[in-house]
């Protein structure tokens, strides 16, 4: 399928199934943001807060499915936070500064 029928099919699928992705994604983003803000209140404002918030978000989000799933979620959250940090030039610079002081 190409052209207009393909585009119509993609638009219909997005509208029909988009909310199934949007709700969990919104919950994860909210948890990550809230945990990162809480971490800033507890300790210094640096990039380690974002990494910890990513790991905690993954662990909390998957916690109803058991300890193993929570650990996998923490690893996935940490991995996504690392990718996000490495993709942002300012975050890379601040993280290298944190490592130089350690």
TrEMBL record:
Cross-referenced InterPro entries: Tim23-like
GO cellular component, one term: TIM23 mitochondrial import inner membrane translocase complex
Pfam families: Tim17
Localization, UniProt: Membrane
Signal peptide per UniProt: none
GO BP, sorted A to Z: protein import into mitochondrial matrix
Transmembrane segments: 69-87
Protein keywords: Membrane, Transmembrane, Transmembrane helix
Membrane topology: Multi-pass membrane protein
GO MF, one annotated term: protein transmembrane transporter activity
Protein name: Uncharacterized protein
């Amino acid at each position: 399928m190409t052209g207009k029928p393909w585009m119509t099919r993609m638009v219909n699928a997005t509208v029909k199934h988009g909310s199934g992705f949007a709700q969990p994604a919104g919950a994860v983003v909210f948890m990550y943001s809230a945990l990162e803000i809480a971490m800033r209140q507890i300790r210094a404002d640096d990039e380690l807060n974002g990494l910890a918030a990513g790991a905690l978000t993954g662990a909390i989000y998957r916690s109803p499915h058991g300890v193993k799933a929570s650990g996998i979620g923490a690893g996935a959250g940490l991995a996504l936070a690392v990718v996000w940090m490495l993709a942002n030039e300012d975050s890379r610079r601040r993280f290298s500064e944190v490592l130089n002081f350690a």
